[in-house]
Amino acid sequence: MTTNISYSYYNPVETIFGVHAFKKILPTIQKYVQNNHILIVSDENLLNILGIHENLHTLLKANGYTADFFEKPGKYSSISIIDRGAERVRKHQYGLIIGIGGGSAMDTAKCMAILGRNNGSINDYLKKGKSLEKTGVPLILVPTTAGTGSEVTRWATVWDLGDFFKKFSLSDPKMFAKASIIDPTLLLKLPPKMSAMTGLDALSQAIEAYWSKNHNPVSDEFALKSIELILENITKMFHNPSDLSYRTQMALGSMFSGLAFSNTKTTAVHSVSYPMTLHFNIPHGLACALTLGEFIKFNALETPNNTLEAPQRLQTIISLFKTKTAEEAALKLTMIMKEMALETKLSQFNIDENGIEKIIAEGFTPDRVKHNPRLVTKEDLREILHNIK
Ligand SMILES: [Fe+2]
């Protein structure tokens, strides 16, 4: 038995999980709020769709709070939206921010909370190396997808849709939320296809956390449980979107995925997905799923530029797919995607040779791809993308 185990794992977010957990919003607010002005950040019109806008407003008012609402337009957590939101937080000196929605709404809320107490544009922090000195406004996150895992991570994806036209990440331990409320009933209105794509994002994050060079025994446990839960429930959830039991298992799988990759970051699959989303409008989870099977095959190979342990660890992932080889696991993933009416080829998004070269040119995010267990070269990525042409 080895004694050579040494790691640190850190995640300070209180997670409040369960069917109707959202009813615990008031005591959670009371625990963390610093003054009686509260800002709720959400996706556009989401609170009305979920039927919680009026109830939340009434509840807060009845308990002595003023509630303001900030609805994020569109699907991206963009620089202009975040700067506008941060300005508003500084002006009104909120004592708590609640972010409700998918990954981009929660990431917007995260950035607004930290920038609300740190001056300047988010550009200063992303591009000029300015550091976040002060702690942010206390933050509670409520995911309505399962999901990005953003509710338990210390970073936010920020899209520069201007001249740079690039995906950035703002990351700091001060950006962790105080608490996350994960209520599977809030997932029921999410259309099956969107649920499928966000579920595949969570699956990809968990698999990448498990094979990441940064993995540790704690992240491993969360990652394996997440992979198992998602593979067991994702198609059942797709075919039975109103069934709360599958939604609950997917919510749990997504949270475990977040707890795993909150300490490892993602790897090559996520890195390659960003230009696919930015230039070809492929939703994030689907962009990850498109190359996930190919990277399972790639990382499973014993080669001189792979870590010694990777092929063995890949075997554990392969067995969770209830398959014997990496090829079979990749094929199974393709079948799962087809069963959920998702695209599996780049040509279905009109990505031609030029498009593939664009993805290769922008697909190497150093902070992500360096954690992949096997070194990825441009030639490797070209071959992977041609395999899913
Ligand atoms: Fe992701």
TrEMBL record:
Xref: InterPro entries = ADH_Fe/GldA, ADH_Fe_C, ADH_Fe_CS, Alcohol_dehydrogenase_Fe
Q: Which UniProt keywords apply?
A: Oxidoreductase
Question: Which Pfam families does the UniProt record give?
Answer: ADH_Fe_C, Fe-ADH
Domain named Fe-containing alcohol dehydrogenase-like C-terminal is located at 196-387
| Residue ranges annotated for the Alcohol dehydrogenase iron-type/glycerol dehydrogenase GldA domain, each copy included | 12-184
- Name used for this protein in its record: Iron-containing alcohol dehydrogenase
Question: Which species does the entry assign this protein to?
Answer: Candidatus Lokiarchaeum ossiferum
